[in-house]
Amino acid sequence: MGWGIILYENEKSALVVSVVSCQGLPGREPAGPDPYVKLQLLPDKQHKVKTRVVRKTRCPVYDEDFTFYGIAPHQLSAITLHFVVLSFDRYSRDEIIGEVVSPLSTLQLHSGEAMALCREIQPRSLKMRSVGRGEVLVSLCWQPAAARLTVVLLKARNLPKMDVTGLADPYVKMYLLYNGQRIAKKKTHVKKRTLNPVFNESFVFEVPAAPNVTLDHVSLELLVLDWDRVTKNEVIGRLELGAEGAGSARHHWREVQAAPRRQIADWHKLKE
Predict the structure, then answer these.
(1) Mean pLDDT of 5-33
(2) Would you say 153 and 174 are in contact if contact means Cβ atoms under 8 Å apart?
(3) Which of 79, 75, 124 is nearest to 106 (CA)?
(4) What is the pLDDT of residues 96-153, one digit of tens each?
(5) Do residues 117 and 165 share a domain?
(6) CA–CA separation, 5 vs 72, rounded Å?
(7) By its UniProt entry, which InterPro entries does this protein fall under (predicted)?
(8) DSSP H helices in the chain
(9) What SS3 class is residue 105?
(10) CATH number of the domain enclosing 67
(11) Of 123, 140, 155, the domain-final residue
């Protein structure tokens, strides 16, 4: 459950949103998560703010006010408040606990009158599982003589909606692994506001040559992420290509091994 207060000030053309508290937050940690709240105004996503982190609690109290200026009265009905509750993690990506979507058109806002807002926090993970995580089209070319693996990230399709505007800002980060250890990293540009991005970007990885140059101990890890200017970027889906993979990923890798110097492309489903 999340609590807040909304106030519109006509003379200042300002919308004031107070993030008060949350109650009963889930979390894997026995002591509770390290929650904070991210707020953005939809559909333009231009106004983004976040609260401080409150440590080890399922019932954080924030009492933080955020003022958004330049909003005319006639614009209020088109604005939706999007709250995302996250648990801060110093060593990896922050975990999304849940979200609240509240269109202002459903509220009776009057200038100068504060209105309390109380909403259930909805889990996002269930929605992600039901719609799937989309697919990526990847082309690989293995050049044994040069000990190089060329990766062309062509495009992705049917990515899940990462916010209530129905869009995402996807990009792809990829790692070359040797004996299970990440040894090189590359990433594409961000493609704004799309679920079907076209990248057409090529990357060359140098493969360790000793004692013999093969792809047997090499794999490629791809992370498709949703870019966010305010918080850590959220992982949409993952893919690992290599001899130890399964299904289309394993078949594609073996094709590339068997046909050096040929660029071979294939679609792959992203996983959690």
Answers:
(1) 90
(2) yes
(3) 79
(4) 888 898 999 888 888 888 999 999 988 765 455 545 789 999 999 999 999 999 999 9
(5) no
(6) 19
(7) C2_dom (IPR000008), C2_domain_sf (IPR035892), Synaptotagmin (IPR001565)
(8) 125-131, 247-258
(9) helix
(10) 2.60.40.150
(11) 123
Q: Which residues does 260 contact at the CB level (< 8 Å), separation at least 6?
A: 142, 143, 144
Give bridge partners of residue 109 from the DSSP assignment: none
Structure tokens at 193: 């506001």
Give SS3 for 176.
strand
Residue with tokens 């440590």: 55
Amino acid at 253: W
Same domain, 144 and 90: no
Q: What pTM was estimated for this model as a whole?
A: 0.59
- What is the C-alpha to C-alpha distance for residues 258 and 174, in angstroms, rounded to an integer? 23
Q: What is the DSSP letter of 160?
A: P
8 A C-beta contact, residue 154 and residue 140: no
- The CA distances from residue 52 to 45, 49, 66, in Å, are 20, 10, 12
Domain coverage including residue 168: 128-269
Dist. CA 270–CA 240, nearest whole Å: 9
| Residue at token pair 């190089």 | 148
Residues 111 and 134 occupy one common structural domain: no
Would you give the DSSP letter of residue 74? Answer: G
E strand residue ranges, the chain: 2-9, 14-22, 35-42, 48-50, 61-69, 80-87, 95-103, 115-119, 135-143, 148-157, 170-178, 181-187, 198-206, 218-226, 234-242, 264-269
Lookup: tokens for 139? 């082309």
**Vertex 26 angle, CA 24 and 29, to 5°:** 120
